[in-house]
Structure formats: structure tokens, C-alpha cells
Design brief:
The protein has about 240 residues and is α/β, with parallel strands linked by helices. The chain has a single domain, classed as Carbamate kinase, CATH 3.40.1160. The chain starts with 5 loop residues before the first strand and ends with a strand. Bound molecules: uridine-5'-diphosphate (UDP). The site of uridine-5'-diphosphate has 24 residues, from helix 1, helix 3, helix 4 and helix 6.
Length: about 240
Amino acid sequence: MKQYNRVLLKLSGESLMGAKQHGIDTGRLSDYAHDIKTTCQMGIQVAIVIGGGNIFRGLSGATQGFDRVKGDQMGMLATVINSLALSSALSAVGVKNRVMTAIRMEPIGELYTKWRAIEAMEAGQVVILSAGTGNPFFTTDTGSSLRGIELEADVMLKGTRVDGIYTADPEKDPAATKFDRISYQEIYRRGLKIMDLTATTMCMENNLPIVVFDMDTPGNLIKVLSGENIGTYVSNE
Ligand code: UDP
């Protein structure tokens, strides 16, 4: 059963660390690659945006005295490193893919344009969209919203290490309960922090639904794509 034709998958850099304190866990990478391979076999077009938090975040750099813009550029480069790692893991399991960059840096990746990305997906390739939006003061969540909207994806799948959106942080409040569905408005009203507000607002204004789910459990991505009721579905309804 296919729920979606084209998805924008957001993977967090932090999740790539697995059990490590920084860097890339190759086991986690390989789990992701296998789930993405199955997604392609379901006939779904896949675009991926990956974060860089396992390597560098501009905001934390700024608190250590780095210039914010240079720090954000370092963060964007971190997403390129992760994208190359994912590309390599996908190739290893036989999934054709292309790395595109929001900032020109051939031959590491080709410069992103909507048309190139769609052409590649229609030819059966996974596109990995690196360097976020290409601008400082944004995050890869905003990069994912932007690319999801631009590429006319049916949904943005936000893979995290929690299994959905809760009334409060479940790691701090044991009484917190999970939403199966929630509207963007309710997210604002309750002050829930699932993504930065720029990203949430872009999805709301352009009607891009989001599914927040636990990507660290292998097979979950396929469950979401098969319509199983895991994670939290966010929409305007
Ligand atoms: N970043 C940026 N512009 C963008 C996307 C990312 O400047 O459009 C920088 C920013 O410094 C951010 C870092 O790249 O902290 C890594 O991205 P993010 O924090 O979103 O990664 P994640 O939390 O998903 O691992």
C-alpha cells in the first residue's frame, strides 16, 4: 500500500551519532540506507535533507566565540559531510542517488535546483539535499520545509529519536502523552517545540503535512509509509 508518491525525509545529524558522542555511527547509517532502499522499492520518490548537529551547530559555536555567520557556514558544511556519508551508504546497498548542494561546490555535489532534483527522482534516484537552505540563521528543519514545498512533496517525514509529539518533553515529564494527530495551530497554542517556528510556519502556510516519528528504530519509516498509525501527523486540519 502506497500512501505517498513523493516524500521529503528529514534526518537529524544527532541521530546519526547512534550511541556515540559525536561523528557518524556506521551501523545507524546502514539501517537508514536499508529503510530508504525499501522505500524506493515501494515506488516512492525520495528527497532527503540531513542535519549537521553531530558535527557542528552555528548557534553553539556562537556561544564559544565563533562568528555566527561563519559558524552557520561550518554547520552547513557539516550537513554536506553527513550527506556524503549517507550517499555512500545508499550506494553500498545499490540505491542510486545524487548529492545536491545549496551552495556551489562541484565536484562534491551538483548545485541544487528544483528541476534537477525532480528529474533525478523521476529517474528513480534518491536526492540528498545538502547545505540546508544555503543561508545562515536557518536550520535544516527550515531547509526541509522549503525543499518539501518546492519539490511538491506529499509529506515531510521528520525522523527523530522520539516517537512523536507529546504534551510535554517525555524525557523530562513521565506524565506526558503523545498526540496521534495535531494541527499547526495547536502546536503554537501549546508552545510545543517540534521544530523551529520558521520551519513550522512554512509548512502551515503552504499546507505541507509533517509526520514526526522515531527513525532510530529500523523499519519505522516503512511503517509510516504503509499507513501504520505510528508517530504524530501534523496538518492544518
Ligand atoms: N545551517 C544553516 N542554514 C541552513 C541549515 C543549517 O546555517 O539552512 C547550519 C546551522 O548552523 C545549524 C547547522 O547548520 O545549526 C546544522 O543544522 P541543524 O542544527 O539543523 O542540524 P540537526 O539539528 O538536524 O542535526
